[in-house]
Every structure is written in C-alpha cells, then in structure tokens.
C-alpha cells in the first residue's frame, strides 16, 4: 500500500560534515516499508513544490509512543537537499511511499555480506536491522568503502545492531587503504552459502557483481538512479541495457534492488 503523508520532522542531524539523518513521524509508511524500498520526499514549500527527491528508507524504529519512525540519510548535493538539510524539528515534509522493490533473502543463506560505497550505506542500515531481528542465526558482515573517513557512514549504527564492520578508504584515513572490493575478496574466501547485498556508485556495483559471479554467489544490487517521479511515469530512471536486452529496466519500478544478473552477465 502506498501512502502520501505530511510528516513531522522529529530530528534532523548532521551526522558527519555534509551528511544528514532526518527522522520523520511517518508511522504508516514506516510500517509498510521493506528494506531496499524508497520514498519520495519534498520540502513541502509552496514556493518550490517540484523539489521531490527519492531517498531509500534508511532506518525504521519504534518510537517511545509506540509509533514507528522513518529515517532518511542524505548528502547535500542540490537545492532540494539543501532545503531539507535546513528543516528543523517541528517542521513538516511531504512523503510518498513506500516505493519500488526491496531486498530478498534466500532461505539457505548462511552468511550475508552487506557491501556499501559512500552514501550507499543508507539502505544497508534498515537491511541490517531486519536481518539481525528476523534471521538472527544468519551471520552478517558489513563492508564499507568510501573516499575518505568522513564518507564512511553509519559504522556506529551497524555495530550497535551487533554486526561486524570493516572499512576501506581510498586515502587510507580509516580502515584499509584502497577499495571495498579488496575487503570483499577476503570475505569471499572459503566455502559458505553466502549472499551479497550492495549499494553504491555504478562502477563499484559492477565490480562487486563480477566478483559475486566468479564465486557463484547470489548478489542483489540497489541502484542509485536519478528518479524524478518514482512511479514509472517519467522514464527518466532507465538503466543501461545489458547486452542482448531488448527493453530498458527502470530503477523505480524494476528496482531499486535488482539481481545483479539482470544488469551484467
Ligand atoms: Fe520516473 Fe522511474 S523515476 S519512471
């Protein structure tokens, strides 16, 4: 079920320079959301009604009053996100969702590898919480890659959920120096029924998908495409076609979570 609601901003915190976590009183959407799905959020200003932007559901938590809280995590990159970053508790935003297809867990999986690049950590928190709550015997590892230490997000949250976290930065400012794929290479050693869930920039997703294929490991990717409508109407979120593919897949309707095999062979 889809909801279009005016949601109260409960908290809007700059967790690291340039990165904001906004908590919203959006009980219906929070309850209906599955990990990997997204919402469209607009600042709700009458002057700029068109600034609706897609954000993956970052986290879902129960509030003190028993109502559920929905969080988004964003980086300020344009006018829409700048306005959102200035929203104070007590103000409201317009939220539409949940939208799109989320992650799914294979029942025979023994170990989940959550691989995120930069802001790609955003949907992984909800997924991690869900896996820890619903599939607790399944072991989970989180591999975070980013350019600098400032871009490594949510390490504390993953640890609070109880997951092992490894980080890699391109400048070596935190964790291993280099790319997250080097961490993944290690994590894929040995035999285990694994499943990879990944979100981040396209080149990283492609590299992760190639490694998954090599290891015969199922891999689901969450793509960060530019989405204007979120509902299959604008066709602006078409994904690059894989060789031999006839029709474009669209991030908002076919994804944002897709089997890696649908994008690369
Ligand atoms: Fe408009 Fe996908 S965002 S069709």
Explain what the structure shows:
With 265 residues, the chain is of the alpha/beta class. Helices cover 22% and strands 32% of the residues. It is built from seven helices and 14 strands. A seven-stranded antiparallel sheet has the order 4-3-7-1-2-6-5. It has a seven-stranded mixed sheet with strand order 11-10-9-8-12-13-14, with helices on both faces. Strand 9, helix 4 and strand 10 form a beta-alpha-beta unit. The longest helix has 13 residues. The mean pLDDT is 92. The structure holds FE2/S2 (inorganic) cluster. The site of FE2/S2 (inorganic) cluster has 13 residues, from helix 7.
What structural class do helix, strand and pairing data support? Answer: alpha/beta
Instruction: Give the class-level CATH name of the largest domain.
Output: Alpha Beta
Largest sheet: 7 strands, antiparallel
Helix and strand sequence = EEHEEEEHEEHEHEEHEHEHE
Total strand segments: 14
Give the second-level CATH assignment, the architecture of the largest domain: 3-Layer(aba) Sandwich
State the strand order across the main sheet.
4-3-7-1-2-6-5
Which ions, cofactors or small ligands are bound in this entry? FE2/S2 (inorganic) cluster
Descriptive tags:
265 residues, alpha/beta, Rossmann fold, seven-stranded antiparallel β-sheet, seven-stranded mixed β-sheet, 7 helices, binds FE2/S2 (inorganic) cluster
Which secondary structure elements does this structure contain, and how are they paired or packed?
Layout lengths: L2 E14 L2 E7 L1 H6 L5 E5 L10 E4 L2 E4 L5 E8 L3 H7 L6 E8 L11 E7 L4 H13 L4 E8 L8 H7 L2 E6 L6 E2 L2 H8 L6 E6 L2 H13 L4 E4 L28 H4 L2 E3 L6
Parallel strand pairs: 8-9, 8-12, 9-10, 10-11, 12-13
Antiparallel strand pairs: 1-2, 1-7, 2-6, 3-4, 3-7, 5-6, 13-14
Helix pairs in contact: 5-6
The structure holds FE2/S2 (inorganic) cluster.
The site of FE2/S2 (inorganic) cluster has 13 residues, from helix 7.
């Amino acid at each position: 079920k889809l909801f279009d609601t005016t949601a109260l901003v409960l908290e809007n915190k700059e967790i690291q320079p340039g990165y904001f976590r906004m908590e919203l009183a959006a009980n219906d959407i929070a309850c209906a959301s599955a990990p990997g799905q997204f919402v469209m959020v607009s600042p709700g200003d009458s002057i700029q009604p068109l600034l609706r932007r897609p954000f993956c559901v970052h986290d879902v938590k129960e509030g003190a009053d028993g109502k559920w809280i929905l969080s988004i995590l964003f980086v300020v990159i344009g006018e829409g996100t700048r306005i959102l970053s200035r929203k104070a508790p007590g103000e409201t935003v317009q939220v539409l969702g949940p939208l799109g297809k989320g992650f799914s867990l294979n029942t025979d999986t023994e170990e989940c590898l959550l691989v995120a690049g930069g802001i790609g950590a955003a949907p992984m928190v909800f997924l991690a919480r869900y896996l820890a709550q619903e599939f607790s015997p399944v072991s989970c590892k989180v591999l975070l890659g980013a350019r600098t230490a400032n871009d490594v997000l949510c390490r504390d949250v993953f640890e609070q959920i109880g997951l092992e976290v490894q980080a890699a930065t391109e400048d070596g400012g935190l964790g291993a120096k280099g790319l997250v794929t080097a961490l993944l290479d290690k994590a894929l050693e040995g035999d285990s029924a694994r499943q990879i869930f990944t979100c981040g920039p396209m080149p990283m997703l492609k590299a992760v998908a190639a490694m998954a294929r090599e290891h015969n490991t199922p891999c689901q990717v969450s793509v960060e495409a530019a989405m204007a409508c979120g509902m299959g109407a604008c066709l602006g979120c078409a994904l690059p076609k894989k060789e031999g593919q006839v029709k474009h897949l669209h991030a908002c309707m076919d994804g944002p979570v897709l089997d890696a095999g649908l994008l690369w062979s």
